[in-house]
Amino acid sequence: MGKIVRTLSEDGSVLCAALDSTDIVREIAKMHGSSPVVTAALGRLSTAAAMMGAMLKYKDDELTLRINGSGPCGTLTAVSDYRGNVKCSVSNPVVNIPTKPDGSLDVETAVGCDGSLTVIKDMELKEPYCGQVPLVSGNIAEDITSYYAISEQLPTVVALGISFGERAEIEAAAGFMVQIVPPVMDKAVEILERNLSNMDDISAMLEKHLTPEDIAMTALSGLGAEILDSWECGYFCGCSREKTEQILVSLGREEIEKLIKEQKETEVCCHFCNKKYIFSADDMSKLLKETKS
Ligand SMILES: [Zn+2]
Fold first, then answer.
1. How far apart are the CA of 237 and the centre of ligand 1, in A?
2. 250 Cβ contact list (under 8 Å, min separation 6)
3. CA 216 to centroid of ligand 1, rounded, Å
4. Fewer Cβ atoms within 10 A, N terminus or C terminus of the chain?
5. Per-residue pLDDT tens for 124-143?
6. What are the chain's domains?
């Protein structure tokens, strides 16, 4: 399981969420059979989605991050609930591109930078919120930081990291997110900026095996921060035959009739967990009866 820890400064003006997403990223690699650079991109996006999801208010709230940067891996999507349980998908899970001169994975090239990041928040009691910003680098952490600055006008710092071993196995993955909650306290911002510039980068933190508690407390050191809460989260899809039936019904009569005519059985594969749902001609005829137009 992953673990999320949230800390809040004493004056309530700075909030930090840190996540150990090692198990989640291992699950992503297993689920999608992705090559390391795509695992890194999906892992970063899912780590961010989980932390952003953990900032949602209500229990049925859901957050979707979608990146289309016109790179070889295509569109990447991550969906999280308010507990940081996350699932993700990608158009092309296997992309092989040369590593950067320093030997690190070239996530920016795999994702691409010609496109946008879309953030959708499905919130209880409200119309879904949708914000979109152009990508700044395709490295995902910078793109999410830019989203908060442009779309939500919330000063936010996001760091995401995944470290791989010699045989491309996932050694560790983590992220943290620091957000200044209005009204902005100048003194707190000053201390925070100093902390962030003195902090190791996330890959060094992973090498030192820092826990999410360590990371969240270090980011807010000198601010009288306390641990607000912490809990476990994981890779979770939540698809079902019933939900898949609803998707088929939503296609409309014409499309269902076409599927019945074209194939003996209809197979629907969940692109988040690869589970297959098979519908016989009889099943499809029943669904057709439930479909209005
Ligand atoms: Zn699924």
1. 5
2. none
3. 32
4. C
5. 777 889 999 999 999 999 99
6. 2-233 (3.55.30.10), 241-290 (3.90.1280.10)
